[in-house]
Amino acid sequence: MTITNNLFKGGLQLVNEAGVKVGGSNLVPVALRLEKTALDPAHKERSNAKLVLSNATDSAALSGKIELVQPSAYAALLKPIRFAGVAYGDSTAIDLPYLAAASLKFKVTLDDGRTYLSSVKLAQTFGGSMTGDTSDAPRIDLSAQDEYAGGGRSGAADLSADAGVAWDDEKLYFDIIVRDDVHKQSYGGGDIWQGDSIQLGIDLNRGAGAASKQVSELGFALRDDGSVVKWRWKAPDGLQTGALGADVEATVTRDAEAGATRYAIAMPLDQLHGAGFDFDPQAALGFTLLLNENDGSGREGYMEYNQGIGASKDFTLFGDLYLLDGRLQRMVAAFGPGGRERGKGEEGRNVDRRGARLRGAAAGGRGSDGARRGAGCIGGGGRAAYADTDAYASARDKWTDRIADTDAGSRDGHAHAGGNA
Ligand SMILES: [Ca+2]
Ligand SMILES: [Ca+2]
């Protein structure tokens, strides 16, 4: 059973593992929710995601720090930031840098020592422009236990993935490195989901919501006999389900010693929408990635980045995938796992090396946005914030500053939205 702080959308969720009925509300004083908007190339100085922290129950003002703990790739990069003076019923809005993640898990530590974990759904991914044979967009980290559904997962070496998305005018490219200790795939055709495989959900008309007819659910697998299966369970209007043709390229390679399976897929865009549909690469696509797990004794479970394939077939639950063009690339590439430091043809992306490169990328990107821009606006009440500052760079620096305990509020005077309007 899950119980939530029901006064605030996106409130903290506690899971009762005792298996008995539990009632109540306002269980914790802090509630987190995410305010997300589409990327706006005309305003790259504005963050497109704000974390809103509310004081839901405490008569005393709340102070403390908040830190990202998941995805782990970003947790290694972002530093805790402080909040202070959040009175009962008030909120503080904290801009987030451009992050690629299905969800973000934060740890809130109040100054009196109480700690809380809370997740918010971000559902945002970036596909980089294809340059050479790789992308420099932030990569996907699918490694947390709570992204797994099933039994018996022992950790990242048992099942996890590091994935990248790229595009050009002709194709979408996926580079998916799955860590899996045992590779097992004896199924064929539409049954490959029962063995080790990946599934991709892609919606090229996400703006139409549940009415979209441009939705694909695809599967790729390396069989034990060495052959590769390319399958489509759901097709856009006018296209066929079933085996995918030779124009869909899928190279799947297994490195048993490293315990890794790499899926390199090039999917023609015209295989992702029906004839006559005008695909707009500036609009967010729908995207979900799922890993199926079989270590030799049947399907054990799956890991899912975003939603809409595993638990229920519902493409409206896919996340947003932004295809970065020149304008969007400059917004995103300065920050994030894989941003800027990728794309140099290096292999062997183990986590430690990746972490080291991430930190280098962040340091190189800081402050590079240059020109100061006009005021953005955060929080309620029409209160202008970030006057005469580069708001996005400010937000990014706040999370990436080495000074972990800097008080965000006293530095910038903006973090206490609602507290002194
Ligand atoms: Ca495994
Ligand atoms: Ca396996």
Automatic annotation (TrEMBL):
Region (Disordered) location: 336-374
CDD domains reported for this sequence: CBM9_like_5 (cd09621)
GO biological process: carbohydrate catabolic process
Single GO MF annotation: hydrolase activity, hydrolyzing O-glycosyl compounds
Compositional bias segments (type: Basic and acidic residues): 339-355
Domain Carbohydrate-binding: start-end pairs: 152-323
Pfam families assigned to the protein according to its UniProt record, in alphabetical order: CBM9_1
Protein name: Carbohydrate-binding domain-containing protein
Organism annotation: Cohnella rhizosphaerae
